[in-house]
Write a structure and sequence with these properties.
By secondary structure, the protein is of the alpha+beta class. The chain folds into 2 domains: 163 residues, no CATH class; 107 residues, no CATH class. The protein has a 6-stranded mixed sheet with strand order 4-5-12-8-7-9, with no helix packed on it. It has a 3-stranded antiparallel sheet with strand order 1-11-10, with no helix packed on it. A 3-stranded antiparallel sheet has the order 2-6-14. A hairpin with a 6-residue loop joins strand 7 and strand 8.
C-alpha cells in the first residue's frame, strides 16, 4: 500500500488563482536581525547556516531560510527584511518536500530548494504542478496556501543579485526566535528604532556596501528606511552651538563619517561631540545630505 505523502495534509479543494486562501507570489523574504543583516551586506549574499531542527538536523546541511509569507504583525526572526526574486532563486533548482511542523498556530511546511545531489537527504521530490501541498504552480504563476507557513530552505547561498529590496519592519511582540525568549532589542518600538538607526549610521559611516539598490525604492527610500535617517539626523544634530574649528567640507565629511561609526558602536555622547567640532549647522546638514545622496545614488534626497 502506497504511503500518503505528508504534504497531503495541506490538500484543499480551493483553487489557486480563484479562492482567497491562496496567494500569488513572485518574491520570497528573509527576516533577520541587525548584525546578520550587516553580514549579508558585507558578504554580498545570504549565507547558509547549519539547520537546527527537524529531519535535516542530523545531516548537518547548511541552508538559508526564505518564505513567501510576509509577517504583517511582525516577524519573530527580526526586523530587517530582505526580499529576493523567486524566479531567480527557483530557476533551475528542484523543489523537495522535507516535513511539516504543526507546533504553531499556522503549520510550517518545509521545502528544500536545491540543484545539488540530495540522495543522502531524507527528502521527497515535489512537483508543484501536480502535487497538492501548500505550494502550487499554475501556468507560470506561483501560489502559497495562506493557512500555512511555507518555509523554503536553500542549500546554497542566496546571491546579492537575486535580492530586490531591504526594508525595516516590526518585530513580533512576545517572542524572538534568535534569543529564544521574550527579550530582544528589536522587539520594543523605541529600541527597534535605535537599532535601525544604528544600522543606517554604519552604512553612512562605512560606505553603503552595495545596499543602494535595495534601500531606494523609486523616488524614496524603501519602507522604514527614511525614518532611520531622520532619527540619525535628530540624534546627531540637535543640541549643538555649532562653533567648532572644522570649517571645510572635507574635514566635515570625515567628522560625520567618524560620528556615524561611533554612534553605531554605541557611544552616542562621543558621536555628538564629534559633530560639534563642525563650524556651522548648515555645513553639517549639507555635507551629511550629500554623503547620503552620493552613497545611495539618490541625487534628489533631502530632509523634508
Amino acid at each position: 500500500m502506497a504511503t500518503v505523502p505528508e504534504w497531503r495534509s495541506f490538500a484543499t479543494s480551493a483553487v489557486p488563482g480563484v479562492d482567497d486562501c491562496w496567494e500569488e507570489f513572485t518574491g520570497v523574504w528573509h527576516y533577520t536581525h541587525m548584525m546578520p543583516a550587516l553580514r549579508i551586506a558585507e558578504d554580498r549574499q545570504i549565507s547558509g547556516r547549519l539547520i537546527y531542527d527537524g529531519k535535516l538536523l542530523a545531516t548537518r546541511t547548511e541552508v538559508a531560510y526564505l518564505s513567501p509569507k510576509q509577517w504583517g504583525g511582525g516577524s519573530i526572526y527580526g526586523s530587517f527584511c530582505f526580499e529576493a526574486s523567486w524566479p531567480e532563486i527557483h530557476g533551475p533548482r528542484k523543489l523537495y518536500w522535507v516535513e511539516e511542523n504543526r507546533s504553531y498556530q499556522n503549520p510550517i511546511a518545509r521545502f528544500l530548494l536545491s540543484w545539488n545531489d540530495v540522495t543522502r537527504l531524507p527528502v521527497t521530490p515535489y512537483d508543484p504542478t501536480t502535487d497538492d501541498g501548500p505550494l502550487r504552480l499554475v501556468g507560470d504563476k506561483w501560489y502559497w496556501l495562506k493557512t500555512s507557513v511555507p518555509e523554503i530552505v536553500i542549500d546554497d547561498p542566496v546571491p546579492f543579485s537575486a535580492l530586490r529590496r531591504l526594508t525595516f519592519e516590526s518585530h513580533r511582540q512576545g517572542y524572538c526566535h534568535h534569543t529564544k525568549s521574550r527579550s530582544c532589542s528589536e522587539m520594543d518600538a523605541a529600541k527597534r528604532m535605535d537599532v535601525q538607526t544604528s544600522f543606517v549610521a554604519r552604512l553612512v559611516g562605512g560606505g553603503a556596501i552595495g545596499l543602494q539598490d535595495l534601500m531606494v525604492d523609486g523616488d524614496d527610500f524603501a519602507w522604514g528606511v527614511r525614518s532611520g535617517f531622520t532619527n540619525l539626523w535628530l540624534r546627531l544634530f540637535k543640541g549643538h552651538s555649532w562653533d567648532g574649528p572644522i570649517a571645510d567640507d572635507v574635514g566635515a565629511a570625515d567628522l560625520i563619517a567618524g560620528a556615524c561609526l561611533t554612534y553605531h558602536a554605541g557611544d552616542v555622547g562621543r558621536a555628538k561631540r564629534l559633530m560639534a567640532l563642525i563650524d556651522t549647522e548648515e555645513r553639517a546638514e549639507r555635507i551629511f545630505r550629500d554623503m547620503i545622496r552620493e552613497q545611495f545614488d539618490f541625487p534628489t534626497f533631502d530632509w523634508d
